[in-house]
Amino acid sequence: MPVAHIGIDDTDSNELGMCTTYIGAVLDERLRALGFASAGEPRLVRLNPANPTKTRGNGAVHLRYHVRGREELPMILKEAEDVVARLAALGDPKADPGIVAIQSDGRPPEALSGFYWSALRGIVSIGQALDLIVRLGGVASWFKEGRGVIGALAAIGAPEEETRMYELLAYRPPIPLKGPRAVDEESVRLADLETWPLTYDNYDWYYMEALVAPHGPDPVLLGIRGPDRSSLFRAYDLIRVEDRVERVALYRTNHGSGSHVVDVGGVRDLRPYTTVRLEGRVSARPWVGPGSHAFFELEDAYGDRIRVAAYEPTKHFRRIVLSLEPGDRVRVVGSYRPRPPEPPTINLESMEVLDLVSVYRRAAPTCPRCGHRMESAGLGKGYRCPACGYADAGLEPTRVRVPRRLVRGQFTPPPRAHRHLTRPPEAYLWERRPACGVED
Ligand code: ATP
What we know:
The protein has about 450 residues and is of the alpha+beta class. About 20% of the residues lie in helices and about 30% in strands. A hairpin with a 6-residue loop joins strand 19 and strand 20. Helix 3 crosses helix 5 (about 150-155) and helix 6 (about 185-195) runs antiparallel to helix 7. The radius of gyration is 27 Å and the shape is elongated. Mean pLDDT is about 95; it is low at about 435-440. Adenosine-5'-triphosphate binds next to strand 3 and helix 5.
């Protein structure tokens, strides 16, 4: 049976509120009330996190319904336009809502997956999106500049196996109020203890901070994510929310997929606004810059160098960066977003320490007579033993190996600084659990 796919993006504002997932939830309710049967769970698709035009998490929404034929697309599009016109933060000059409707025989057209990968890993234009929509016989509608058609189309194109995670979202009525949500922190801890790792990033145990609730003016009260639907609902049951919950929605998402990362062979292969994985050696001692950000310099196999940063919000992750020594071999994952006049910098998302150099310091020799550590007898006068009094003007300092505070392995910032798409440390536990796979 034919399926109508609807993508929506760019409806929200950091100042005026709203959230594209809320609009998706309202539209889904409306279309189902009109008799359209769902052809799959709604999807929340995150796109390029290094995209300079994103507001927050660069998320777009994909909904799908069984239809009799193409003649139903305009009706669905009209419903979507109504909901977006009523709810989107159109007063924000940066909000450029776009809606795309495309019909297929079931799964989204194959031709669209390439567009998803381009929008996830690079930058695409509105023109490219519109060309593809026309080629696929779809329809699009937009407000203002309509940049949202890019994300709307890319969300439809995400291959099914890309969206293996779930996010359960609870919403308050969409009144743009900033500030904390009345979500009981202790109940979040309890929910995390009971449902982790099948839910994750609910609570940052390093910094004792609940992460489920945002702080902006959007209608989201809380979001719970993970690979297992029933664990999400279990966590939601355990979390006490004092605010009025207007609705709850469940989205499939590409959170935690790590699919946004592109492997590059060297610094010369970096393209602006991408997230890369790059291997190299630490070529300068790490340092702390203004704003308490931590930096080091990486040299690739060709001898080209680039600055790598662990910014202040990554908290103790900076200490790992600062424990690196020149010569250590690392594989970094991070976004490359040129911001002149700042030097080109990779903003770390995670780091693997592959090899550690041995570090030595100069020390006074031990006494050849009694074995005690000697001390300097003065410039050019050799060493003297404070225990037995033996002195020798010809003795040289020795090299002592300094224990490294760092070990080899994979390091990620604390949960409070995780990106939506970052592969979290829990992922290796999910992989051992076949039930997390995609159902068809
Ligand atoms: P959310 O708040 O839902 O998490 P967001 O608010 O951060 O997401 P949007 O407001 O949706 O982001 O704005 C992102 C804009 O960038 C949208 O117009 C989208 O179409 C566009 N966009 C997304 N990915 C790309 C890309 N790879 N290249 C060019 N434009 C993109």
